[in-house]
Amino acid sequence: MTTIERSEVWIRRRPGWAVIARKEFADHLLSVRFTALLVLLGLVALASVYAAAGALRDAAPDTAGASGMFLRLFTVRGEPVPFSFLTFVGFLAPILGIAFGFDAVNGERAQRTLPRLVAQPIHRDDVINGKFVAGLATVALILGVVTLIVAGLGIVLLGITPTAAEVLRLFLWYLVVTMFVGVWLAFATLCSVWMSRAATAALVAIGVWLVLALFGAFFARIAADVISPIDPADPRSALENVRTELAVARLSPVTLYEEAAVALLTPELRSVGLVTLAQLDRAVVSDLPVAQSLLLVWPQIVGLVAVTVVIFAAAYVSFMRQEIRA
Amino acid sequence: MAAPVLVETRGLSKHYGEVVAVDRIDLEVRAGEVFGLLGPNGAGKTTTVLMLLGLSEPDAGTVAVCGLDPARDPLGVKRRVGYLPDTVGFYDAMTGRENLRYTAALNELDPDEAEDRIEALLDRVGLTEVADRPVGTYSRGMRQRLGLADTLVKDPQVVVLDEPLVGIDPEGMVEMQRLIVELAAEERRAVLLTSHMLHQVQEMCDRIAIFIGGRVVAEGTAAELASGLGDGRRVYEVAADVSEEVLAGALRSAFDDATEVRAAGNGRWRVTLPAKAATRLIPVLVAAEVPLHEVRELGADLSEIYHRYFVEATA
């Protein structure tokens, strides 16, 4: 009976999810997809920032002394690159989440390691929790590295150092983009629970991402026209139509991310909603404090977290209910 | 004093929709004993095993493993039970040693202690040479042996092996059987294994339950099972130049209706008799002038019993 007595006094060295997260994180770092995505995202980021730096330098005589120059590096686009860094990352970041989640559970099934894993003294949810944490940590690492490289390059290219407020804004944006990727990581994890083949899960996740990213605005337009059609006789209906479109668009995490990112990296932005000409009349262009920018998009940030939580909860519940040898 | 009962089920049942996977089974496995669940694929062996580990919820009945209920205290049970799943999988990119380290970490073992134990286990299953190669390069038999080492990392009181002998070459089979018997005989663990391989089960197991269609149809030592079909009848093989009608007629006129004659090919017949009739078989056949070549008792062979139960259960 010595075995029982000894196991009773074993102290908990590291909770099960942390052991799993550690192993998964190590796997991710050594994987080909980590290197590939880091290089891919790094190149895209460099190209967009290099172009933006060129555009900013050309415009320097007009904008000398303007505030927020450093952040414009991330929000301005320059020829020949078609998008700003902000847009690029918003478009490509979901693939990071998908890449580190699409084979989370079905991969264990395919390797037949799942029964062995859950036969160890851990709770079953430790598996999915640990994997999510590891995926998010990997994604945060890639995004952090890319952002820091780009920021450093910007300092060299433009010769301006960021203010403390700008650094804070960049950091907040970094948190937001990580949360945005968290949505896709959770979704890919859900696919990996539902679909027994990793390839199917990846295709479904990528499909949904592409549809939302490319056609999201289009769907919002159609929905707005159906819900509140424009009555030519009533100018208010046009306003109502646009409001509806915005509300529908905000159901998509893509919109939530874009609004939050733009507001955080553009200090002079006062509103992410509708602004009429009358409201702009005689408005003084000035920068908002960081806290006010944050407050402006707080609902979007909370929305991103909520979407992540809901999708992850769905993955969690499905996984807990599944038979181990399905 | 009898060894403690480490695994006990009472009326354990599980069904998936309309299909009954496990039907009211009662099992008892004691420390130092190898218990074999023998049955064809799809008999519900794996389902039973999963319920013992708390990985599947029983619909009815009780389970106690080391005195714990797997449904209420799954972690306590999983700390004490080593489980080798059928067709065990490993992380192919990791080495054998790394795979075992991961299991040790999940079991909250002290890293230094784990390192020593892993080394000893690798040596025991004969994988020291390849321990630092990725598991992807291992053969089926090596994986199976690594699987056995993996179940022992936590130094379990109960070892559950699901089809441990599948896919192993004959040489490795002997070695694996020796290791399994050692776990019970020398280390006093309770070993529960499932298999559809008769002869190996007969060789390794102290007690055997024949498991067909979700039910335990017979249970006992190999000798107990072999001494009869559970109902006291015995099976003989009769070699004789005779037609089935003549043979069956001769036997039925001498014994009661329980007599059964089945062709076994090559002029051989399988005859099932009530136990009390057995000693009179040869005199009866001689008296009936059956040209007899050979009479052999088959009772000692488990395959006859297994086959018989299997036929009965599926008929």
The H/E string of chain B reads EEEHEHEHHHEHEHEEHEHEEHEH
Number of helices of chain B: 11
* Biggest beta-sheet profile of chain A: none
Shape of chain B: elongated
Largest sheet of chain B: 6 strands, mixed
Biggest chain-to-chain interface with counts: A-B, 30 and 36 residues
Distance between the amino and carboxyl termini of chain A: 36 Å
Strand content of chain B: 25-35%
- Given helix and strand content, the structural type of chain B is alpha/beta
Give the radius of gyration of chain A. 23 Å
Helices and strands of chain A, in N-to-C order?
A: HHHHHHHHHHHHHHHH
**Count the strands of chain A?**
0
Q: How many individual domains of chain B? A: 2
First-residue to last-residue Cα separation of chain B: 43 Å
- Shape summary of chain A: globular
**Proportion of helical residues of chain B:** 25-40%
Strand element count of chain B: 13
Number of helices of chain A: 16
Tag the structure with descriptive keywords:
heterodimer, A: 326 residues, B: 315 residues, Rossmann fold, four-stranded antiparallel beta sheet, elongated
